[in-house]
Structure prediction request, 296 residues.
Amino acid sequence: NLPKNVTIIEVGPRDGLQNEQSFVDTDVKKEFIRLLAASGIKEMEITSFVSPKWVPQMRDAAEIVHTAPDGVRSIVLAPNRRGVDRVRETSVKSVAVFVGVSNTFNKKNINKPTKESMEELKPVISELKKKNYFVRACISTAFYCPYEGKIAESDTVSLCREFAEAGVDELSVADTIGMAVPTESFSLFSKVKKELPELMVAAHFHDTRKTALANIFAALQAGIDRFDTSAGGLGGCPFAPGATGNVATEDVVYMLQRMGIDTGIDLDKLTEAIDLIAPAVSRPINTGYYQLAGTS
Ligand code: HMG
Ligand code: MG
Prediction:
């Protein structure tokens, strides 16, 4: 019962770069986005309209929002009304809001308790839907929190339901610090799919403990066919200590292709995007597929 096609939502330009200490040149970001699109990626988190004081790496957001070619869904993150207002000054038509299930994490990330974030975002989501925006809700700390530890499945499912009732088109359910294991992935995604069968649901795994590919396989079995991944395995949230990179796009695409599941992504072209970004980032890119690329 595995799907024949899977949609990859590339989060490299956003999650991948937000945690980089030295500023990645705006032109390099733009070329990265273009090469990712050229590899066949159709949905991408391009950047985020967050406070430049909090996340200096995203301070050039307004300059790069329009980089991806037509035919690619460009998604921009916004933490609050101010962020959404900034998106509405552009021609971008997809917004991702983000909230943590864990209250402590939400305060560290957005400077507000989860409940206050939801009170601010619900009317904003409804306004966006009236204007025909595509709205994605990223649910952080869906499994574990770096401050509060294990998160109850029922709390994550409740927050998913709250967003569904607020009218979002898609949920992206995240293992922010890469602690989940496949049994937890299968269990949570089965419940979310059962509760909200009509909603698009993506899984967002960080690969801190190398369980992400196994978690993806478990999520596939629970009926998930959308995955957030990051080229080169870059990524991590600056306000989640211990968070390392997202699961690498190339490793996920390789695995799915070998399983006969189509993603529409060309691995050779994806490698060109990673070749471009590798010298611009501080950490070595040592993902499985990329290390072997060009050697066989
Ligand atoms: P704050 O300091 O409480 O903000 O930060 P404020 O409302 O008090 O405003 C203070 C100043 O910031 C004001 O400017 C505002 O205009 C400005 P001033 O009057 O001093 O000149 N401001 C903004 N500027 C630009 N864009 C905005 C914005 N909002 C206020 N949107 C705030 C609150 C939410 C802004 C801050 O906490 C913030 O920017 N947080 C973002 C944190 C972040 O980007 N985290 C990473 C993304 S989430 C993630 O990675 C997880 C995910 O991958 C899933 C997973 O793996 O879990 C999605
Ligand atoms: Mg993330």
